[in-house]
Design brief:
- This protein is 73% helix and 0% strand.
- The protein contains 18 helices and no strands.
- The N terminus is likely disordered.
Length: 438
């Protein structure tokens, strides 16, 4: 097809930005807000626990390296998608469409795998963001339960009941359909998250911090759990293509400075500071979210627990957008126009109910975070983007084929994270379940 086109040909033939017609385009600020919120949600508050697993020295270096790798993978995914848009003369492509296009226009021997590449990418997207929605359901419920247990002691309910209670409000919020309007909720979520961040720092520095018993490097056996948690916290790659495709000026997404650089810099800064100092303050007694370590008698701590619940609540529809967007692409052509709105409302309610239902079945916050980070985000955020760039640039891999070697390292790192992270997390779950049965 277009295999033998040079870079110059591809650049001059077609400009996808000139042909994009977005119904409600987003500004650079709104796009940055959406990208930060898509990545920096509940994972930020799990940062101190990640540092407890790795040690503070390894934690700082590891967070910086993983941040660079995650940012680079987003960069090559968007760049590859734009290259595919030029090849196919299409204004925009989603994540799964990009995967299909790469294989369709790749070496002849692998073109037959194009449909599989799309299906696999969509499966990875749905699995990842269903997992994220489950985590958000549990985290909101955990925060509410702590407050109710403390201030209404006559009402002691398991966390699963609170998952059911929040189901209605989440269903209503997930009826918002456009990223432009979701940016408003993302902005509110970012404000609540930053307030929680500042309150956590207030408690961290509110009393003496001792470093004597803090490890520079933790137990190597726990390092996969650290990597899984950090990847979960920093990855928002499933939202990247919808955000870039909905931008008023998509050419501002890449480059320096750019939407991606600003967002990733903020994400790495907030995660590393809270992770480092949170570990210094609380040590090895940290829970899945640092807000669960805060005292229950002080108003700032009460506000922090309420703020994080609100922050995650307002982020929920942004994560759910990825899941529903895939569902909509496959079902829209089968639905008559007269029933489209009713069907969409009902489908969104069913989708949210499914995600919350899984959260009820598996209310182990820390372990779900690690599973999603190790398994799903490793595939979606590391392995697939590196593979797509390699295939797309197969005939031009650079001097000494450095692009191939670079992407092989990313793929090996992704598989290593997947296998080791899942193994450690499954063993943790087995240990927890054994303790409950004793």
């Amino acid at each position: 097809m277009c295999d033998n086109k040079t870079d110059v040909d591809i650049k001059t033939d077609y400009n996808p930005f000139e042909h994009r017609k977005v119904e409600k385009p987003s500004s650079d600020v709104r796009s940055t807000t959406n990208l930060i919120k898509a990545s920096l949600g509940s994972g930020l508050l799990a940062g101190p626990l990640a540092f407890a697993n790795a040690g503070w020295g390894v934690g700082i270096v590891g967070t910086l390296i993983i941040g660079i790798i995650c940012g680079h993978c987003v960069h090559i995914l968007v760049k590859t998608s734009r290259g595919c848009c030029k090849l196919e003369k299409k204004p925009l492509l989603g994540y799964a469409e990009t995967a299909k296009s790469v294989f369709t226009n790749g070496p002849k021997k692998i073109r037959s795998y194009a449909k599989f590449a799309k299906i696999f990418s969509e499966f990875a997207l749905v699995s990842t963001y269903v997992g994220v929605c489950c985590i958000y359901s549990v985290l909101i419920s955990d925060s509410i339960k702590q407050l109710i247990d403390r201030y209404v002691p006559s009402v002691i309910l398991p966390v699963e009941y609170y998952c059911l209670i929040i189901l209605g409000p989440i269903c209503l919020l997930c009826q918002v359909r456009y990223l432009k309007w979701l940016a408003v909720f993302s902005f509110l979520a970012n404000i609540f998250l930053m307030l929680t961040y500042l309150i956590c720092l207030y408690y961290i520095f509110g009393s003496e911090i001792t470093l004597a018993d803090k490890k520079i490097a933790g137990d190597p056996w726990r390092f996969p759990a650290f990597v899984s948690t950090v990847i979960f916290a920093m990855e928002g790659i499933g939202v990247v293509m919808p955000v870039e495709n909905a931008m008023k000026k998509p050419q501002h997404f890449l480059g320096c400075p750019s939407v991606l650089v600003v967002a990733m810099t903020a994400i790495v800064f907030f995660y590393s500071t809270l992770g480092l100092f949170g570990y210094f303050r609380y040590g090895d007694v940290l829970r899945g979210s640092i807000t669960l370590n805060l005292p229950l008698d002080d108003w700032p701590a009460i506000c922090a627990k309420a703020f994080i619940a609100l922050s995650i609540f307002f982020t929920y529809p942004l994560q759910f957008y990825v899941v529903f967007d895939i569902f909509k692409k496959h079902t829209d052509r089968y639905i008559k126009d007269d029933y489209r709105n009713v069907t969409e409302v009902f489908a969104r309610i069913v989708g949210v109910g499914f995600c919350v239902g899984i959260g009820i079945a598996l209310p182990l916050l820390e372990q779900i975070i690690n599973i999603v980070g190790a398994c799903f985000y490793s595939i979606l955020g590391l392995i697939i983007p590196a593979t797509l760039e390699t295939v797309f640039r197969w005939e031009k891999l650079g001097k000494f084929k450095w692009i191939l070697w670079k992407n092989l390292i990313i793929i090996i790192f992704g598989f290593g994270t997947l296998i080791s992270g899942c193994t450690v997390t499954v063993l943790d779950i087995i240990e927890i379940l054994n303790k409950k049965t004793v």
